[in-house]
Amino acid sequence: MELFKIGFISVKLVDVIDVVLITYIFYRLYKIMRGTVAFQIFVSLLLIIGFSLIAQLINMKAVGWLLSRITEIWVIAFIILFQPEIRRILSTFGRTRFARMFFKFDITESVTEIVDACIEIQKNSWGALIVITRNASLDNIIEKGEVLQAKINKELIISIFNPKSPLHDGAIVMSSNIIEAARCTLPLSETRTFNRRKLGTRHRAGLGITEQTDAVALIISEETQDISIADSGKLELCMNKDDLTDKLKKAMNYKKISKSIKEIIESK
After folding, report:
1. How far apart (Å, rounded) are the C-alpha atoms in residues 237 and 220?
2. Which run of H or of E encompasses 83?
3. pTM
4. What is the CATH number of domain 106-258?
């Protein structure tokens, strides 16, 4: 369906949709990569492609040939250089409400056990880092930790984070209703402050894993006894037990699939 003409160019509805989609994709790429080293490399690649086009237009054969050789391998270079960012983008798509309605997370059955353990650890003034997987696998992180394969329960979680336990350093990773491993090492986030306070290694690790995967992380501060939840690279402070329970249930897609579908339809 033709909408209007600009000179001899006919603009159709599909063209407008096409431009809007491309604009949105580049905007999301900009938001995800902004402030990172990868963003600077991405801009450099775009400049190389731009110079290549200009060189061809003004018939600079030598420069055009050299730049064209570079642009021929830019797709491979893009995948190699932007592997973490591509993983984050794909994880972001997996975290959308539309994508989540097709998955059911058994981990929600253990929310009470996890919350009770966190409150007890908080009372004991201990630190803790708990990672709960959703769609993305954390096998590479689990394999480097101490594999447990134990059913989630309050007492086990508390005993792991007891300062006298040899497993208390690092994070525990949960999948479904199983504690997969303890003493796991996580990637650190580049974010160093939150609410004008400097973040320690535990908080940066919790943020880091949620930036690179679709996992959720619970962080208990040994210094302040605050409990925080990290999701999609964002950190939120939990004010009390009920607040922690609500935030964790929401993060783990606690609502029934039918209710999620209804909300999606009503939100349109």
Report:
1. 10
2. helix 83-94
3. 0.59
4. 3.40.1700.10
